[in-house]
Design goal:
570 residues, alpha+beta, eight-stranded mixed sheet, 13 helices, globular
């Protein structure tokens, strides 16, 4: 088994350092080879965009760090080509339990319904996630990774919004400095973002005066694969504790310590081991694998786009760890940005499309910060009144379902519904359910044209998709045929997925190369509130941007143009 925590990667001279190197403007430079930077670079490279990824280090992360990866992140990993590895190695879970003192308050299930390819979450140490992403990145010929390459300067050149505009990065290496030119730069260089500092930018928000201890403990234990959270447990009174299982028989334990705790002293084995022993009992054998003390803030930059530099992940926004919203929201940044950069670089969309990356992900960051702050305030009440309220809610939650909605041990990460996005086309017909314009697509089991079991989300991604729900063995109307042909043969062609209900023949009039799937269980139609003739226009990042009960060519053309920030039809 590869030990990803001890891997190191070699520095190598690059094109720009050649004695007679010709100046070259790369399409995209990504700064920071953490999870978000790797995901962004992979997504761009898979779409045919040439990418240079630079990092000032030559290693992966150590310790568990981010460990809870949501179903949405797993869907993204599937599209990037490494989802199966993440799930195979990770510990899947849907169920969580909340305790007060030594009593169970209630149990919750984050994915109670069947018919989903991926679980609500997998627990997987960050170094595995980075390692699997890196191995995927190395498979892509148009993705160059440059280790030990520290960005020390930045200048934007050319007229903003034009193809001449680009960014010049000064890069320091073991062989000296060089200049790296790129049309666009993605700053995914972490919470202390050197690029943010170089540009004189900052983040605003709230810092929480509390300290927490992470202990990664290796042991054989019979705890179920669930998320356990204690308020005021007898083994750690007046504080909170979180327990998660990870791969390799490693368990993650988070102990709240309080702001007055000495961060140096509390990391010593003499302090950590008794805390772990009090939780596990005197007879459980364990080893400490990694220990860290953390404090946290909820911050974000005012704007995520600054000319041809776009900020993503922790460099753009920071949340408390409660709810696993940090890395998961960073992957959503990556998928939102990658398709838009690709569309602009390939002249399929205007530069204004990149402004919607900023507006959409700023909205999502605000939502994550709001939920993360509420979780923190509930877990660590800062006043007597707040504590009385919290304890009353926990008492009531044992018997009353309404109170369970108020218990907040970390509202776990869900993707933002981009309801107010300027890329959406508003519904004109009556729909119910969750698949509103701006919503991320939900999965459902389907069968391919040969009857082989598959999944709806596997048919989406990488480009715009038109999804038509139709009854097998029936004819399409003239307006629907015209709309499908318009979409399939347009200047920016989109692919068509036909979801058939029933076992009859494929309807006549579908464009060539239409992907045919059958909704044998009826869950796709149910989850998308679909009838025969219902049509969805899906973005490359698998968000809905338009839907109709009956569609025509003008509707499709205008919605498609709106989603690319280009002029539509009259």
């Amino acid at each position: 088994m590869i030990d990803y925590q001890t891997l190191t990667f070699d520095y190598a001279r690059c094109h720009e350092q050649g004695a007679h190197a010709e100046p070259r403007v790369h399409a995209v430079a990504v700064v920071g080879a953490g999870p978000v930077g790797l995901a962004t670079a992979i997504d761009l490279a898979r779409q045919g965009i040439s990418v240079v990824l630079v990092d000032d280090d030559c290693t992966l992360s150590t310790g568990s760090r981010a460990i809870c990866f949501s179903k949405r992140s797993l869907d993204i990993f599937d599209r990037l080509g490494c989802g199966e590895r993440m799930v195979e190695k990770g510990v899947s879970w849907n169920v969580g339990k909340v305790f007060r003192k030594d009593e169970l308050v209630y149990t919750f299930n984050l994915l109670p319904e069947s018919g989903h390819r991926r679980p609500a979450f997998v627990n997987l140490q960050q170094y595995y996630v980075e390692g699997f992403l890196l191995e995927r990145a190395r498979e892509l010929p148009n993705l160059e990774i440059r280790w030990k390459s520290k960005v020390t300067g930045l200048a934007q050149r050319g007229t903003p919004g034009t193809e001449s505009a680009h960014v010049a990065l000064n890069v320091e290496t073991p062989d000296g400095p060089y200049e790296l030119l790129a049309r666009y730069v993605v700053a995914s260089d972490g919470s202390r973002s050197p690029l943010r500092t170089l540009m004189g930018l900052d983040s605003q928000g709230r810092t929480f005066k509390d300290r927490f201890l992470i202990a990664d403990v290796k042991m054989e234990a019979d705890f179920p694969t669930e998320r356990w959270f204690w308020f005021d447990p007898p083994f750690h009174p007046n504080q909170s504790v979180l327990l998660h299982r990870q791969p390799d028989n490693v368990w993650r334990i988070d102990f709240q310590l309080g702001w007055d705790a000495d961060p140096v002293l509390e990391k010593t084995p003499e302090r950590v081991i008794p805390r772990v022993r009090a939780l596990l009992g005197p007879d459980v054998k364990f080893e400490l694998e990694w220990v860290s003390i953390y404090t946290f803030s909820c911050l974000r930059m005012e704007r995520f786009r600054h000319g041809n530099v776009l900020f993503a992940g922790d460099s753009a926004h920071l949340v408390s760890p409660f709810g696993a919203r940090g890395a998961n929201s960073g992957f959503q940044d990556a998928e939102n940005l990658a398709w838009k950069l690709a569309a602009v670089l390939e002249r399929r969309a205007s530069d204004a499309l990149l402004d919607t990356y900023a507006s959409e992900r700023e909205y999502a960051a605000d939502e994550n910060i709001r939920n993360s702050t509420r979780s923190t305030d509930f877990i660590t009440p800062k006043s007597a009144v707040s504590r009385v309220f919290r304890d009353a809610v926990l008492t009531l939650a044992r018997e009353h379902a309404f109170a369970r909605q108020l218990v907040n041990s970390g509202r776990l990460s869900v993707p933002a519904v981009l309801r107010e996005s300027s890329l959406n086309t508003a519904d004109e017909d009556a729909f119910s359910g969750l698949m509103v314009p701006g919503a991320p697509c939900t999965d459902a089991p389907v069968a391919d044209a040969n009857g082989k079991a598959s999944w709806l989300l596997a048919q989406l991604g990488d480009c715009f998709k038109g999804v038509l729900f139709c009854a097998a063995g029936t004819a399409l109307n003239v307006q629907t045929i015209a709309a499908l042909e318009s979409l399939a043969k347009g200047a920016v062609p989109a692919k068509i997925v036909a979801v058939l209900e029933g076992e009859g023949a494929v309807p006549a009039g579908l464009p060539l190369n239409t992907t045919i799937v059958r909704d044998n269980a009826g869950l796709a139609s149910q989850r998308y509130d679909a009838q025969a003739g219902t049509f969805y226009l899906i973005r490359p990042d698998q968000h809905v941007c338009a839907r109709w009960r009956r569609v025509d060519a003008d509707c499709v053309a205008n919605a498609f143009a709106k989603a690319l920030c280009v002029a539509g039809t009259a």
